[in-house]
User: What shape does this take?
Amino acid sequence: MAGNIVDTPSGLSCPAPPHLTNVSPARSASSNRVVPATALQALAPGEQPLSAAARAFNLQLGRVDKLRAQLDELDALGQSHRVERHRWLAPLQQQRRQQMRALALALDGHLQGKALSRLQQDTAAEAVCALAQTLADEGEADMVALHDRHSRQTLAQKKQAAADALRARLEAALGEPLADGDEALSADELVREGLARWRAAREEAQARRQAKAQARKARKRPSAQQAEALTQAADAETQLRTLFRQLASALHPDREPDEAERLRKTALMSEANTAYARKDLVTLMQIQLRAELADPAAVSRLADDRLAALTLLLKQQVAGLERERAARQGQLAGEFELPHGQVANPNTLRQHLLAEVAALEAQVAQLGQDLAAVQDVATLKRWLNRQREAPRPGRADRDPDDYV
Assistant: This one.
């Protein structure tokens, strides 16, 4: 690139800031191109092989690219699966709701007459309440009145009772009340407050454990290897900070008289600020290349100790990307309700969707049979007797973590 090149303390090369004001608009378009992490790799000098430090640096760059690609794949997977899941499940869910509504209204109609015994009326009313509550929870507001007409407790009272029970369990676990004084909180507010305190208590306990571990570690005299690692970590932080300051100086938008360039530098500076906050060395180096502020071959000229320090930053970035990948997989698993312990990938999502479709189809088929059975009193009575005799699945108490 034309212009004066200054050697920076980090070993990377940047043009002298005064010359940045002369970057042409055509050249500024290069800031939009995607630069892979592997474009930053150290290259072997001539016929000589790469040093161990250079190979380690290049390895971590490759891992960054791979993890970023995996994150993009997870995003694409989530978007495509949402569409596919809606395409398959929405019609079945609508059909299920329609049949549940028809069944609830049919039973409600029979309850207006006198053909059923007291026990059969109780069974029919219980079925109406279960159907109406499910539909109300799914957004069908008119089902609330139907539920309340046949239940000893209104739906609002049931929800409040459930929230009170959960609050009692949370207060017992936390050892303190959730509400301050006589402040009236809704059921949802109580649950949110309880969960917030539950998380805060766990985080505080974890922080105490970490502080104790760090205090024990600080009391120990570091070995030579540990001292070297600490020095390398400090050198890595220094190089990261130096690189960011050079970018901030070169890209400062207030020093740019051209409006288009000022907008471009503002965008790049915003990206650099985010990258620095995340200790994202790769993105900072990519910004250098995109803005044509660095010699691509500069990394190859770095001494091994400098490369080792940069490699340490890359390892930290790789660890962060691995955590982000695990979190993204967990989010997809939760969103699509995968069984506990399953990792979200195309196969597990597809298999679970097939199971969901099969379960909904079975429910729709059963509801169709139930609707046919309640059309006349004789078959209705036999249906009610079967409902009463059928074993009812127990509902285990839920742990507060289930609501996180």
